[in-house]
Amino acid sequence: MPSPGHIALVTGLVSTSYFTFGNIGAAYFGIMPLTARGQTTLSVPDRLALWDTFYSVSKFHMASSTIIAGLSLSVSSYLTPAGSLRNLLAAGAVSGFTVAIFTVLFILPLNNGLLAISRANSGKPMEEKQQQYVLAQLDQWRALHRVRMALGIISWLASTTALLASDPVIQF
């Protein structure tokens, strides 16, 4: 039977995998490329509506996955004897929590601004100046999102490495 530390580690790995690869997929193969300059012929209001839909769908499960990852890796680190494996798990936990903190401090204000514009202009044409502002905000969002993905990758690498370096989770 797996130990509580292993259960926490596997939970952390699953959560970081979901967060990291879900975000990478959305950023490079999903809806987000359709919001980028030079990637599509969609109008700016349509790009903003796509971003709004993406954000509305993903805000709860992506946020909860990184919190679960941070908590799980914290528990796994706590239950692991002192040494490099414990330090690695702690680094993964810190990275997982940093995603949430970074999002609240830097991305949430941008999200709120984009949502306000989306709601105010729903079904209405935008002036050129506002379109350029929205495109600049979407560019900034993508740049900040790359930082968040890098933090997710750190957490995923830590949990993957820890799982491979630990004793077998299931023994026969």
From TrEMBL:
Q: Which UniProt keywords apply?
A: Membrane, Transmembrane, Transmembrane helix
Mind telling me which residue stretches traverse the membrane in this protein?
A: 7-31, 87-108
Pfam families on file: Anthrone_oxy
Q: Which domain of life is it from?
A: Eukaryota
InterPro entries xrefs? Anthrone_oxy
User: Transmembrane: present as a keyword of the record?
Assistant: yes
State if Membrane is listed as a keyword: yes
What protein name does the entry list? DUF1772-domain-containing protein
Protein source organism = Mycena albidolilacea
